[in-house]
Each structure stands twice: as structure tokens, then as C-alpha cells.
Amino acid sequence: MLGQGIAIFIYLAILTGLEFFIAISFNSVPLLVVVALVKAALVLYYYMHVYKLNLEAEVDDESYDYKAGTNRLGLWLFLVSDSFVFGGLMIMRVNLLGLSRPELNQLLGLGVTAVLLISSFFMNRGETLIHNGDRQGFLNNTAITFLLGLGFLLGVVLVEWRLAIHEGLTASSGPAGAAFFMMTGMHAFHVFTGLILLAIVWINGRRGLYDVKNYPVEAAAVYWHFVDVVWIFFYPALYLIGTAVR
Amino acid sequence: MDKKTLLVGLAAFLLIGVVAAGVFLFSKPASFRGTTYAEPYPVAPEIELTHADGTNYRLSELRGKVVLLFFGYTSCPDVCPTTLAELKLALEKLGDTADQVQVLYVTVDPERDTPERVQEYVNHFNPNFIGLSGSVSELAKIWSDYGVFREIVEGTSAAGYLVNHTARVTVIDQEGNLRVSFPFETPVEDVVHDLKLLLK
Fold first, then answer.
1. Could B16 and A38 be called an inter-chain contact, meaning their C-beta atoms sit closer than 8 Å?
2. How many CB pairs under 8 A join A and B?
3. What confidence score (pLDDT) does residue B156 get?
4. Residues from chain A contacting residue B2 (CB–CB below 8 Å)
5. Domain enclosing residue B52, as ranges
């Protein structure tokens, strides 16, 4: 299982690099969309294991697996409803900006994207390890995920936002600024929420609350990967597609 | 890595490869947004006039640069300042490559526009622009070469008379051929787009 996580991470890393290359060389929108969809599909299947929704129903409705199953369904219903928020923001971006994008530092964008992607890799490791009963490994990997997530959050809010404002791109400077701050802001808020969840499962994990019964870890991990999936679409939408406008 | 994961990876890259091939096969080559001249491109008729600094100015000396040629006059109330301001903006948007583009402003009103006056006028927009004037006979040939319509309308303006004139911007490539022309009020983005194509 750990090997699979590594393989998927390598795929995602290659695709992210490829995406960046496409954007700076010939900027084909259909190709960027396909790469984003492939990345999202890989994360949804391998890191968020959406197929677990389809596990054989447990007959005993007092059992842990049964309860975890209903919890899982609830979590995914929430994620679906949450994606409407992000979908709405994406539609706003397409309507307001079309084939232009805010004028931003593309390398910085690639940097924070890489940090978030690597954090997803460690989250997957942490979740796999607690499944295998390796509590210390789970704690270490979750801590790394937390730090990388914090790095992403600070990179966006403290570095990227400050640079953008310095360059004259503000929330009220025009459609490009409005789209940029609304999209990164809503996403950063979700990253922040994810960090709180990670902190909770880390503290509870250290107290020894999880063994084979570790649904909270799975839920925090799935939520964390969901935030990554959102960024898989927001990143090309804000940093890659089209030509930069002020 | 297990076999299934490997296959999924291969399938993912294959899919992207197929889409990339499709994009390359079916995408149209980048085309100009302005009105294009058909191949073989007509050679831009020569313009030879005395510049404000006293030197003889020849269009053919601008080979290697992209020339934006526009006809107007300094008492022009509407079309000329708008167009010159947009060309100035287009050059700013080009950034570093703007020095490979030369804006040329030729008067349609030689009775009032001396070479000095035209140059002074374009300096208000961008000191790198070149403004040219000359005698009526010299200019008449240039106007007719470039198909420029020009008509004096008496007593319609407080500043004297107005001159109706063609308001297209003609683009001449590095080899001195007519390539594209823009009608009045072409969006600046379109001008920049076409200039970038020519400068590639």
C-alpha cells in the first residue's frame, strides 16, 4: 500500500510538471483541463479511496464498520456540497476572466502547489501506517503533513497575497483581483480547517485513541485530499490558463 | 509498484498524449486578428520625406523593424489622438520587444503641419514615434500609394477646417511588406497579439 502511494505521488508530480510546461510553452486550455482531470481522478481514487463508499454493507448496525460506513457517506455528501461552493467560484472566474488570468508569479504558484501535493503524499502515508498499526509512523507523517499544510497556508496568505497587493492586485482592483482573492481565500480557509482536523487527530493519536478503529484519521485524510483536489483545479485556473492581465 | 497502478499510470499518460496529439492536429495555426494582405505580400510603397531634424527619412531604412503606419494631422480632434494613444499602449504592453516596432505618423494636412509640428505632436504620445510631413505633391503620391482618402471640410471647426481621412493603421513587416491593417478602434489586445506574431 505504501508503494502504491509513492507511485501515485510520482504520477502527480510528473503531471504537475507537465502542466507547468504546457502552460508556459503552448498554453492549450483543453490539454490543461485534461491534465487537471487526470490528477483529480488519481487523488479521488487512490488517496481518497472513493471506492470505499461501495464496501459490502455490514448487517450489524451496532458494529464499528457499519457506523464508519454511514459516517463515510455523510463525509462524501458534505464534500459534494462543498464542491458546489468551489464550482461556483470557478464559474465566476470563467465568466469574469475567460482566457485571461491574474498577473501572478508562476514559479511561486508552482512552489505552493508542490508543497500541497507533497503534503497529500505524507497524509496518505500516515493514514496507511495507522491502518497497519504503526502509530509512531502515523504521528510522524501527520506532523509532516501539518507542517507542509501550514507552509502552503503561509505561502499563499503571507507571501503570495502580499506580493499581489504590492503589485497592485487587490480584492477591489478589478475582476482579476476579485477572482484571485476570493478563490485563494476560500481555499486557504479550507486548508486552515484541515489543519485543525489534522491537529485533532494527531493529538488523539498520541493519546492512543486509534488502532484498527481509525475512521477519524481517514476522515481527516479524505478532507485534506479534497482540499488538494480543489487546488488541482484552482491552480491552473489562476496561474496557468490564458494570458496575464492586471 | 503493483501491475494495476502501473497500468493506470500508463493509461493516464496515454490519454494525455492522445489529447495533446488532437490539440496539435486540429488547432488552427495562429492567425492575425487584423485585416491581412494575401500572399505574395505587396511591397510597401516607399515613403521619403524630410524629417523635423533636417534629415531625409526613408521607410526602406526601417527594414528589420515592424512599422505601424498611420495617417492623420495635428489638428485632428478625435480619431488621431485616440489611435496614437492606443498604439502607445500597445507598445507599452509589448515590453522589451517594443524597440523592434516603429510608429510612423504621416500628415494628411501639409498646409498646416510642418515637419516640426508633426514631430512635436507625436512626442506628446511617445518620443520614439516618428512624425512626418512634406510638400503637397510629395504627400499626394504617398497618399495615393497607400490608398488614403483625404478631404478638407471647410469651416466646420473653431480651429479652422477639418480633414476627413482614412483611419486604418497599416502594419509593415521586417522585410518591408504590407502584412496587416487595423480599422479604427481595433482593441489594443488584438494589435499586441498581431505584433507579437510578427515579432516571433
1. yes
2. 38
3. 62
4. 3-4
5. 35-199
B53 and B135, same structural domain?
Answer: yes
Nearest to B15 among A3, A28, A34 (CB): A34
Using a CB–CB cutoff of 8 Å, tell me whether B14 touches chain A: no
Which amino acid, one-letter code, is at B99? Answer: D
- How many domains is chain B partitioned into structurally? 2
DSSP string, chain A: -HHHHHHHHHHHHHHHHHHHHHHHHT--HHHHHHHHHHHHHHIIIIIS-GGGGGSPPPS-TTSHHHHHHHHHHHHHHHHHHHHHHHHHHHHHHHHHHTTEEE---HHHHHHHHHHHHHHHHHHHHHHHHHHTT-HHHHHHHHHHHHHHHHHHHHIIIIIIHHHHHHTT--TTS-HHHHHHHHHHHHHHHHHHHHHHHHHHHHHHHHTT--SS--HHHHHHHHHHHHHHHHHHHHHIIIIISSEEE-
pLDDT for B95: 82
Could you give the dihedral angle defined by the CA atoms of residues B150, B153, B157 and B158, in that order, rounded to the nearest 10 degrees? 100
What is the residue type of B172?
I
Which are the contacts of A181, defined by CB distance < 8 A and separation ≥ 6? A161, A164, A170, A171
pLDDT tens for B96-146 read 888 899 999 999 999 889 999 999 999 999 999 999 999 988 899 999 999
Do B107 and B22 belong to one domain?
A: no
List the domains of chain A with CATH numbers.
Answer: 2-245 (1.20.120.80)
Q: What is the pTM of this model?
A: 0.70
Query: B5-58: per-residue pLDDT in tens?
Result: 889 999 999 999 999 888 888 877 678 888 888 888 899 999 999 888 888 889
pLDDT of amino acid A150: 98
- Please tell me if residue A201 touches chain B, with a CB cutoff of 8 Å: no
> Model ipTM?
0.77
